Amino acid sequence: MGLSDESAFSADTIVALFTDSFAASEGAEEGALIGGLVEKMLETPAQELCVYTASDAGRLIGCICFSRLDYPQDPRQVMLLSPVAVATSAQGKGVGQALITHGLNALRAEGIDMAITYGDPAFYGRVGFSALTEEMAPPPLPLSHPEGWIGQSLSGADLSPLKGPSSCVAALNKPDYW
């Protein structure tokens, strides 16, 4: 398996991976929703988005996106991990965990202070994420499942509350995703 910081894959290939993997696990409607999200995410300016891919024999088998989560009243740099997809045929083989670990290490090397995601605490806990409260890290929009708001320090410092309200990239700024 190869892990890459820069995509050797077209936007269409990346969108298809997300659409197909979410449709297989959550249904066609969710696949279309997340595929549309990724299409918009890939239009995000490069300084606000990091995309990491996993491939096997030249075929895209996983992709993750980290986008800027801005806390204007706080000096720390925060990135939001969302979304994550692994091809159905590659699931359960450690691809997602390897890809997330790779992305977190790359962000750490860039001096990013904290990573946050909104997902399954059991899965993301395997790669170092732990529970956050909305007071500790105010989300950009109301959360429908606050137990899924999780994060980790990338700087080695203990997690401490982020100051002020937050904002996310335009593609994620919809209640449907929160």
Features:
single chain, 178 residues, alpha+beta, 4 helices, 26% strand
Describe, in plain words, how this protein is organized in 3D.
- The chain contains 4 helices and 8 strands.
- With 178 residues, the protein is of the alpha+beta class.
- Strands 1, 2, 3, 4, 5, 6, 7 and 8 form an 8-stranded mixed beta sheet that branches.
Total helices: the number is 4
Structure classification: alpha+beta
Kindly provide the radius of gyration, computed on alpha-carbon positions and rounded to a whole number of angstroms: 15 Å
Task: Name the beta content range.
Answer: 25-35%
How far apart the termini lie comes to 32 Å
Strand and helix order: EHHEEEHEHEEE
Strand-helix topology:
Layout: E1 2-4, H1 11-26, H2 28-41, E2 49-56, E3 59-70, E4 78-86, H3 95-109, E5 114-118, H4 121-125, E6 130-131, E7 149-153, E8 167-168
Parallel strand pairs: 4-5
Antiparallel strand pairs: 1-2, 2-3, 3-4, 3-8, 5-7, 6-7
Short description:
This protein is an alpha+beta fold and about 180 residues long. The protein is built from 4 helices and 8 strands. Helix 3 (about 95-110) links the parallel strand 4 and strand 5 (about 115-120).
